[in-house]
């Protein structure tokens, strides 16, 4: 039987690239998304029916949305990938509490709650993989991205702590920390701003979603069987 992988944030470019890569490797995939139903519908057409484990619409920016999602989600997943993305850009003093709550829920509480939901099955199986898509900002921090840097830093600490706790049960926990990646999340940047950022990167360009999904593919399979608790940076040398 094919291994089943749940991908949160499947409507984004990294989520989509990861889903297609894993399907090509023989995995079955389930897809969570929030508002972009058309992107998931398009992705669904590229997945053979016998490798499709359903899609799940859920707004994970609220506590109610997280609870509703988990009420409908089965527990039997061999791996979970947290690829959902939500940012808030601006001066920290201008940030409203509801914006803070949304970032916390999407990037921290939804990760905690979903992981808690799927762990019993993985522990019973004595196998499993949990992978987070973090960010360079969770390591380096960023002006005008203070709260986002904070929740991504929390993800990195979660990976390191949980990896130690569940390793005796055969479960591995890792993260990838992308730098500048060519996705819609950077659509707020002007062409000149993107060019200036690319000039700071030793490899001289933004990364591609497929390059992030390559690392996720590596972390989910047996080639990385002795790797856990790690934050793999995918940033073209930008630090």
TrEMBL record:
It holds the Pfam family adh_short_C2. It comes from the Bacteria. InterPro entries: NAD(P)-bd_dom_sf, SDR, SDR_fam. Keywords: Oxidoreductase. GO terms for molecular function: oxidoreductase activity. NCBIfam families: EF_P_mod_YmfI. Belongs to the short-chain dehydrogenases/reductases (SDR) family. This is 3-ketoacyl-ACP reductase. It comes from Halobacillus litoralis. The lineage of its organism: Bacteria, Bacillati, Bacillota, Bacilli, Bacillales.
């Amino acid at each position: 039987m094919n291994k089943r992988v749940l991908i949160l944030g499947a409507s984004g470019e990294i989520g989509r690239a990861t889903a297609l890569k894993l399907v090509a490797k023989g995995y079955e995939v389930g897809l969570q998304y929030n508002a972009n139903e058309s992107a998931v519908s398009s992705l669904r057409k590229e997945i053979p029916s016998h490798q499709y484990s359903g899609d799940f619409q859920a707004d994970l920016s609220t506590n109610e949305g997280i609870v509703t999602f988990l009420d409908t989600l089965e527990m039997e997943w061999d791996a979970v990938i947290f690829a959902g993305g939500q940012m808030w850009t601006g001066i920290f003093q201008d940030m409203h509490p509801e914006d803070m709550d949304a970032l916390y829920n999407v990037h921290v509480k939804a990760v905690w709650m979903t992981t808690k939901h799927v762990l019993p099955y993985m522990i019973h199986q004595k196998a499993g993989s949990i992978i987070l898509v973090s960010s360079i900002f969770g390591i380096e921090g960023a002006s005008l991205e203070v709260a986002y840097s904070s929740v991504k830093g929390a993800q990195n600490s979660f990976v390191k702590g949980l990896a130690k706790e569940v390793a005796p049960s055969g479960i591995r926990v890792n993260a990838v920390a992308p730098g500048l990646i060519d996705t819609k999340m950077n659509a707020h940047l002007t062409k000149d701003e993107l060019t200036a950022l690319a000039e700071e990167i030793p490899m001289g360009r933004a990364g591609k979603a497929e390059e992030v999904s390559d690392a996720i593919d590596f972390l989910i399979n047996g080639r990385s069987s002795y790797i856990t608790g790690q934050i793999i940076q995918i940033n073209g040398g930008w630090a």
